[in-house]
Write a structure and sequence with these properties.
The complex is a heterodimer. By secondary structure, chain A is α+β, with helices and mostly antiparallel strands. Chain A contains 8 helices and 20 strands. The chains are: A alpha+beta, B mainly alpha. Bound molecules: adenosine-5'-triphosphate and magnesium ion.
Chain lengths: 356, 287
């Protein structure tokens, strides 16, 4: 087990820089998830930690060793790829034992460790099969097994669950979590699925366009997103955004002229502001912002309401049931500590809830 | 509903029709290719008098005398052995060098590698005859004229580009993560190539090897120019017989030696056909 440190790491392909100076400290035994939209550089960063991509500048440290120029095989890491990359000509046993064999571990010990990993992952019955005779979920398990028999310093996962169907994904997610609790190995886990990141990780690193937008424990990112990007990315269903001009320190005027009395004044006294409210933080009240219900979607435990508020479509999530019907007028309030405020300039692309 | 029922039936019928066409076409093409071979083998069992009858006789008393004569001649046996040495040597050498360079072209980021690879391929555009004479001069200078190794190296000049490009496209189609995984698991680049890539590519490598060996087996031009007595091969022997027209063309000898040349290839192809078919099919689905 080991710490991992990234110090101002940059990566360029030719003249195009795709990672613009990433610094991160990952503690011994920590489970860190890298999330972000497609193309933000998650895989590139992970592959640099693995030694599969050169570091253009900056330093990568595993433990107290700078590994920039260390070959992948000498970094003592294990990686699970999105497509599993099982060796097709070897059976499950040999796939899992391959790395140990490369390290000249005695045969009896390899056998014991493979059996043990096979037991942990429920693969005992499949040890003599070739990968092509396994289902997707079983292959995924073998890929995990190949990583855990190594007992490496660091586990690297690159979207290991994205090829599985939804149900299996949830199941494997808990298995990975359990595995980490049992083994306690430092883990870096790349995903573009924020739910996966939130549920698995001790700490989530949100990346966007080659930089770290924000990092912190999952609930901190949920409670205190620093940018509109993070606010929009974390949480499901996503946060609602309402942009406009401030006519008073605590009154926001939307584009269509609707004026909203904010529960708290803008501490920075900006003239243009975008406020963000999570669907589950709206409160149906007798007084407050006026909205018109357009869709009601009950799921039993909660009800999702889509409503129109000053030219925007907003999503509201209420616990339990409601008798609101399409066309009804409702009033909404937001507790002051659950309303987020962002610079309008930094929130252009999150206006996705805006009614065009 | 009706359409759903009709559709598969029509499809099945079309498939059946396609199958007939394919069989007929296959038989026609095979006949086209096999007829000269059949004629050669038939002629090789005829006596001189039977060969020149018009119309040609399909039924005659076969004779083994031509075979008996030529299989006893030391120079023919020697050439058969030479052909084996040269074909195996050139095939094996070109598959080793060609596969490794094909892998490098497929995977390793080297400045100008692609241009370099293209140049090697383009070198195949030079007519072999233009190369044969300079090669002979170089070989003679180095004291290597009429040696097996000379012919093997000469064959490699056209086999390696061929193997290299064939294997390059094969390697490109393999997921990169396989080697990356091996490299994380403790292999060097070489280790990953030999322990993972080579075993996976075995069918492709073998079928390429077989084609290379057959190409070397039947090559005439370089063999004619670069060898004389010691290292010359079967095609040279055939050319010699064909060119020896003092007493008119010796068709019986020509066809018998031709048959002797073809038989090892046929036996070899039958032995390895399982690999050959598997290799070709793999290439088709993975490429
Ligand atoms: N070999 C390469 N050459 C040039 N650009 C590359 C190369 N590999 C990746 N990139 C670029 O680097 C950026 C980051 O890619 P990366 O694969 O790390 O994204 P990602 O965050 O993993 O996305 P995804 O969620 O789609 O896997 C992308 O803009 C991509 O186009
Ligand atoms: Mg990726």
């Amino acid at each position: 087990m080991s710490t991992v440190d990234l110090i101002n790491v940059r990566k360029s392909y030719g003249s195009v820089e795709v990672l613009h100076g990433i610094s991160l400290h990952i503690a011994d035994g920590e489970f860190v998830a890298l999330v972000g939209p497609s193309g933000c550089g998650k895989s590139t960063l992970l592959r640099m930690i693995a030694g599969l991509e050169d570091v253009t500048s900056g330093e990568i440290m595993i433990g107290d060793r700078v590994v920039n120029d260390v070959a992948p095989k000498d970094r003592d890491i294990a990686m699970v790829f999105q497509n599993y990359a099982l060796y097709p000509h070897m059976n499950v046993r040999d796939n899992m034992g391959f790395a140990l064999k490369q390290r000249r571990v005695p045969r009896a010990e390899i056998e014991a460790r493979v059996l043990n990993a096979g037991r942990i992952l429920g693969l005992e019955a499949l040890l003599d099969r070739k990968p092509r005779a396994l289902s997707g979920g079983q292959r995924q398990r073998v890929a995990m097994g190949r990583a855990i028999v190594r007992d490496p310093n660091v586990f690297l996962f690159d979207e290991p669950l994205s090829n599985l169907d939804a149900k299996l994904r949830v199941q494997m997610r808990s298995e990975i979590k359990e595995l980490h609790q049992r083994l306690g190995t430092t883990t870096i886990y790349v995903t573009h699925d924020q739910v996966e990141a939130m549920t698995l990780a001790d700490r989530v690193v949100v990346m966007n366009g080659g930089v770290v937008e924000q990092e912190g424990p999952p609930l901190e990112l949920y409670d205190r997103p620093r940018t509109a990007f993070v606010a929009a990315f974390i949480g499901s269903p996503p946060m609602n955004f309402l942009g406009g001009t401030m006519v008073d320190r605590s009154v926001l005027e939307l584009k269509d002229g609707t004026r909203l009395q904010l529960p708290a004044p803008d501490p920075q006294n900006r003239s243009r502001v975008t406020i963000g409210v999570r669907p589950e933080h709206f409160v149906l009240a007798s007084d407050g912002w006026p909205a018109t219900v357009s869709i009601v979607e009950p799921t039993g435990s909660e009800t999702q309401i889509t409503a129109r508020l000053g030219g925007h479509l907003i999503r509201i999530l209420v616990r339990g049931r409601t008798d609101a019907k399409p066309g009804d007028s409702i009033r909404l309030t937001v507790p002051a500590d659950l309303m987020h405020m962002f610079d309008s300039a930094s929130a252009p692309e999150v206006a996705a809830t805006e009614d065009a | 509903m009706v359409q759903v029922a009709v559709q598969p039936e029509r499809q099945a019928r079309r498939k059946l029709g396609g199958r007939h066409v394919r069989i007929v076409a296959g038989v026609a093409v095979s006949l086209l290719f096999l007829f000269p071979v059949f004629w050669m083998v038939m002629t090789s069992f005829k006596q001189q008098v039977d060969i020149f009858t018009t119309p040609p006789k399909l039924f005659f008393t076969p004779t083994f005398s031509t075979y008996a004569e030529y299989l006893q001649r030391a120079d023919i046996v020697r050439r058969l052995i030479n052909t084996v040495i040269v074909a195996v040597g050139a095939g094996v050498l070109s598959i080793i060098v060609g596969a490794m360079s094909g892998y490098a072209l497929a995977r390793i980021k080297l400045r100008g590698a692609h241009t370099f690879g293209l140049l090697i391929l383009l070198s195949r555009g030079v007519p072999p005859i233009a190369l044969a004479v300079p090669m002979f001069l170089v070989a003679r200078k180095m004291g290597l004229a009429d040696q097996h190794i000379t012919l093997i190296l000469a064959y490699c000049t056209f086999l390696i580009p061929y193997v290299m490009w064939l294997m390059r496209s094969f390697f490109v189609s393999l997921p990169r993560e396989l080697e990356e995984s091996a490299m994380i698991d403790g292999c060097s680049r070489y280790g990953a190539f030999f322990k993972i890539i080579v075993p996976i590519s075995m069918p492709g490598l073998l079928s390429t090897l077989i084609f290379s060996m057959i190409l070397a087996w039947e090559e005439l031009l370089f063999a004619l120019v670069l060898t004389n007595r010691f290292a010359s091969t079967m095609p040279v022997a055939i050319a010699g017989i064909a060119g020896d027209t003092v007493n008119g063309a010796n068709w019986a000898a020509l066809t018998a030696v031709g048959t002797i040349t073809v038989i090892p290839v046929v036996i070899f192809a039958l032995l390895v056909q399982k690999w050959l078919i598997q290799g070709l099919a793999d290439g088709a689905t993975k490429g």
